[in-house]
Write a structure and sequence with these properties.
The chain is an alpha+beta fold. 40% of the residues lie in helices and 19% in strands. The protein has 2 domains: 2-91; 109-341, Bira Bifunctional Protein, Domain 2 (BirA Bifunctional Protein, domain 2, 2-Layer Sandwich), CATH 3.30.930.10. The protein has helices at 2-18, 22-32, 38-44, 51-89, 109-123, 137-140, 174-183, 227-242, 295-300, 317-325, 338-341, and strands spanning 127-128, 134-136, 166-168, 191-200, 212-222, 248-255, 258-267, 284-293, 309-315. Strands 1-4-5-9-8-7-6 form a 7-stranded mixed sheet, sandwiched between helices. The termini are far apart. The chain binds 3,4-dihydroxyphenylalanine (DAH).
Length: 344
C-alpha cells in the first residue's frame, strides 16, 4: 500500500507540472484530491490496514495530501498569471491605451457672470435671496408703489396667466418686498441681500431685446442708510467688477419705488472714456438703476419708514456679459447654439 501511495504521489506531482490551463487544473484536483480522488480514497482506506501499519501509512498519506494541495495552489497561481498574460497579449484588454475622453461641459456665459457677481457681492456681505419667477400682480407692481393705472406699467409689458392676478415677474424688484417681509422679521432686522433671477416681458424679440432676461437686484435696509451709502456701495462694486480705477457717474432718474432715483454709469472700460462704438461715443456705460427706497415700499416690507431707511438697485447681467465679450445679438443667450456657447 505504501509503495502504491508513493507511486501515486509521484504521478500526481508529475502531472500537475504539466497542467497548462484552468480546465486541466480542475480535472487534476478532482482526480487526486476530490471526494472520490485517488489520494482521498487512499487515505480513507487506512482503516483496512493491519494495525501496526496504520499510523505510519496515515501519517505519510496526510503529508502527501498536504504537499499536493500546496503544489496545486502554486500551479493554480502560475496558470492564472499565464492566462492573464496571454489575454493581454491577444489584445483583449490593452491596459496601455489612453482612457476614453469624457467630454466636459462648460458654464453658460450668464452663469459665469452670475458667479462673479455672487462672489463680489458675497465678499461685500450680501446674502443671495431667491425669489419666485411666477408672481402676483400685487407684488410685482402695487406693493412697489406702481398702482393699477400708473403709466410705469406700460414700460413693462407683462405676461399674464389664466389665473387672475398671477403673472411672470417683469423685474426682480418684487423680491424686495418678499425679502424684507421674510428676513426683516416684522421690520425689526436690517437686511442686505441680492436677488438674482430671470425676468419676463412681452417684448418683440430682436437682436437688442429678449422676452426673457436676467436681473440682479440689491436691497439694503437699516438705520441711517443714506444716499452716500448707496453711492459708495455701488462704486465699490464697480471697482471690483471693472477694475480699481473704474470711474462712476450718477444721473438723476425716476422709478416709482425709489425716491430719489438714479442711473449708475461706469466709464467705458473699452475706450477709457474717449468714446467708442460700445459706449455709443458717450464714454459711459449704464450698469444699473437705483435709488433710496420709497417710504411706501419700506412700509409694504414691514418697516417703519420714520425709523428705517434703505437703498435698492437693479442691474442686468446679460448686458455686462455683452459688454465684456462684445456679443452683438442678445438672442444668442437662450438659443442653445453650441457654436456660441462653446466660445466661453
Ligand atoms: N426694476 C427696475 C427695472 O426693471 C430696475 C431697478 C431700478 C431696480 C431701480 C431697483 C431700483 O431696485 O432701485 O427697470
Amino acid at each position: 500500500m505504501l509503495e502504491q501511495l508513493e507511486a501515486l504521489y509521484k504521478e500526481a506531482l508529475a502531472e500537475i507540472e504539466n497542467v497548462q490551463n484552468t480546465e486541466a487544473l480542475h480535472e487534476w484536483e478532482i482526480k487526486y484530491l476530490g471526494k472520490k480522488g485517488s489520494v482521498t480514497l487512499m487515505l480513507r482506506s487506512t482503516g483496512q490496514l493491519p494495525k501496526e501499519e496504520r499510523a505510519a501509512f496515515g501519517q505519510r498519506a496526510n503529508t502527501i495530501k498536504e504537499a499536493l494541495t500546496e503544489a496545486f495552489a502554486a500551479r493554480e497561481k502560475a496558470v492564472q498569471d499565464a492566462e492573464l498574460a496571454q489575454d493581454l497579449e491577444a489584445g483583449e484588454v490593452d491596459v496601455t491605451l489612453p482612457g476614453r475622453p469624457q467630454p466636459t461641459g462648460g458654464l453658460h456665459p450668464s452663469t459665469q457672470t452670475f458667479r462673479e457677481l455672487y462672489r463680489i457681492w458675497g465678499d461685500m456681505g450680501f446674502l443671495v435671496y431667491r425669489s419666485r419667477d411666477v408672481e402676483t400682480d400685487e407684488m410685482n407692481f402695487s406693493l412697489l408703489n406702481i398702482p393699477e393705472h400708473h403709466p410705469a406699467r406700460d414700460m413693462q409689458d407683462t405676461f399674464y396667466t389664466t389665473e387672475p392676478g398671477v403673472i411672470l415677474r417683469t423685474h426682480t424688484s418684487p423680491g424686495q418686498i418678499r425679502s424684507m417681509r421674510e428676513l426683516g422679521q416684522n421690520g425689526t432686522q436690517p437686511i442686505r441681500v441680492i436677488l438674482p433671477g430671470m425676468c419676463y416681458r412681452n417684448e418683440q424679440v430682436t437682436s437688442r431685446s429678449e422676452m426673457q432676461f436676467h436681473q440682479l437686484e440689491g436691497v439694503v435696509v437699516g438705520k441711517n442708510i443714506r444716499m452716500s451709502d448707496l453711492k459708495g456701495t455701488v462704486t465699490e462694486f464697480a471697482r471690483r467688477m471693472f477694475g480699481k480705477n473704474a470711474r462712476m457717474r450718477f444721473r438723476a432718474s425716476y422709478f416709482p419705488f425709489t425716491e430719489p432715483s438714479m442711473e449708475v454709469d461706469v466709464e467705458c472700460f473699452l475706450c477709457g472714456g474717449d468714446g467708442c462704438k460700445m459706449c455709443k461715443y458717450s464714454g459711459w456705460l449704464e450698469i444699473a438703476g437705483s435709488g433710496m427706497m420709497h417710504p411706501v415700499v419700506l412700509r409694504n416690507g414691514g418697516y417703519d419708514p420714520t425709523v428705517w431707511s434703505g437703498f435698492a438697485f437693479g442691474m442686468g447681467p446679460e448686458r455686462m456679459t455683452i459688454l465684456k465679450h462684445g456679443i452683438n445679438d442678445i438672442r444668442l443667450f437662450w438659443s442653445n447654439d453650441l457654436r456660441f456657447l462653446e466660445q466661453f
